[in-house]
Amino acid sequence: MPLTAINCTKATAKEAPYKLADSGGMYLLVKESGKYWRFDYRHLGKRKTLALGVFPEVSLAEARLAHAAARKALRDGVDPGEQRAEQKAKALGDAANSFKALALAWHAHKAKTWSESTATKTLRQLEQHLFPKLGVRPAASIKPPELLKALRAIPVAYTATRMREVAGQVFRFGIQEGKLESDPTRDLRDALSVPAVQHRPALTSRREFGAFLCDLRDFKSADRITLLATRLALLTFVRSQELRLGLWSEIDFEAREWRIPAGRMKAGKGLSQAHIVPLSAQALDALSELQQLTGHSPFLFPNVTGEKDFMSENTMGRMLWRLGYKGRQTLHGFRASARSILSEGGEWTVAAMERQLDHAERNKVVAAYARSEHLAERRRMMDAWGAMVAEMESGGNVVPIARTA
Question: For the whole model, what pTM was predicted?
Answer without folding.
Answer: 0.50
